[in-house]
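dude i think i finally got it to work??
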Amino acid sequence: MKDGEKITDDFTLFFIESLKHLKSIFEKRNIDYAILGGLAAGAWGRSRATDDIDLVVFISEKDLEEIVRNLKDNGFEIRFLGPSKPPDLIQVTKKRRGIIIRIDLMLAHIPYQEETLKRKVWLKIFNIEVPVISPEDLIVHKLIANRPIDIQDVENVFQYNFKNLNLTYLKKWAKEWDIEPRLNAFIKKYSNIA
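look at this
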C-alpha cells in the first residue's frame, strides 16, 4: 500500500483496525512483540495476501491475563493452544459482518525467540509503524515451517535482501534447528546470482 492510498474494502479496514488495537495494548503495557508470518514476508520481500496477523510476544503471566481480558472485553475470542502453561500459542479471532480476523500470538519461551525480539526492526505496514522480525529470523521461521508458501516467502526475502543478510547468523540458527540443507540451497542459488 502506498502512502496516502485510501483503503476501502471491509476486510482490509478490519485487519488494520485489529493490528492497531494489538499495537496499542502491547505498547501500553510495554510488552515486547514483533510481527512475523505473511505480514513480515511482505515487509521484507514481495507483498502477498494474508488473512491473519502472526506475532511473537514476550509476556509475563500477569500481563498475559490482562491482555486476554482486554481482548475479550473488545470482542475477541481466545483459544489457548499447546500443552505448556503459559501456552505456546494463543489464537485470537474477531468477527464482524461475516469477516473473521485471526491473530496468532506465539509466546516467546526459548532463547531463539528472545533473540528474535532483540533483533526486530521497526517498519511501516499499512502506514502503521510496527516491530517486524529481521529478514534472517523470518527466513529461519519459514524454513522451519517448510510449507510451500513459506518456501516462496524465503525465496522473496532472499531475492530482495540477499546482499544484506547476515549469513553467519542464519547458519548458526539453521544448524540449531537442523534446517541447514534448506538454507544452503538458497545461499548457493543467490551466491551464484549475485
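The mean pLDDT is 90.
im so relieved honestly
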